[in-house]
Design brief:
The protein is mainly beta. It has one domain (2-119). Helix content is 11%, strand content 42%. It is built from two helices and seven strands; from the N terminus they run αββαβββββ. Strands 1, 2, 3, 4, 5, 6 and 7 form a seven-stranded mixed sheet that branches. The mean pLDDT is 89.
């Protein structure tokens, strides 16, 4: 077990997460990949628009490993515009994925933070 763990830690192969270019339902809002952070130095992000549509996305050979495709739906805000909810999805293949409902709120500094995530 330790030998396998050590091998995985030494592996420097980059892992790509493909992210939808924008949040659906919100015009002119582009997700800024340079603001996405990971606690794993091997993870990188690419826009979905860089890839083929439909099943071609999953059956095309790439020069790098794609771990999954992430997409977000439009945000619904409460009347105060201090709380919101949106749907997110993660697919790892043609027939393999999951979804979540993401609750967000403004903190005391006025920045949006994730309050809670529930599976859908």
């Amino acid at each position: 077990m330790e030998r396998k763990k050590d091998s995985l830690q030494r592996d420097k192969t980059l892992i790509y997460l493909v992210v939808s270019d924008s949040i659906s339902g919100i015009e002119n809002y582009k997700i800024e990949l340079n603001k996405l952070k990971s606690n794993n130095e091997k993870i990188r992000f690419k826009y979905r628009s860089e890839f083929p549509n439909g099943r071609e996305f999953w059956i095309t050979d790439y020069d790098y490993f794609i771990a999954g495709n992430i997409q977000f739906g439009g945000i619904i805000f409460d009347k105060t515009k201090n709380n919101g909810v949106l749907n997110g999805g993660y697919t790892m293949g043609v027939l393999n994925g999951s979804g979540s409902r993401i609750f967000i709120k403004k903190n005391k500094s006025g920045n949006w933070i994730i309050d809670k995530i529930e599976g859908t």
